[in-house]
Amino acid sequence: MTLEFFSKNYNLSDYEIINCEIKNNKLIIDVKVVAYLELIANGYRPEMNVNHEIQFSFNLNHDDYKFNNPIITNQEYKNGILFITINDNIIKISDNCINILQKE
Question: Sorting pLDDT into bands at 50, 70 and 90, what band is 96?
Answer without folding.
Answer: confident
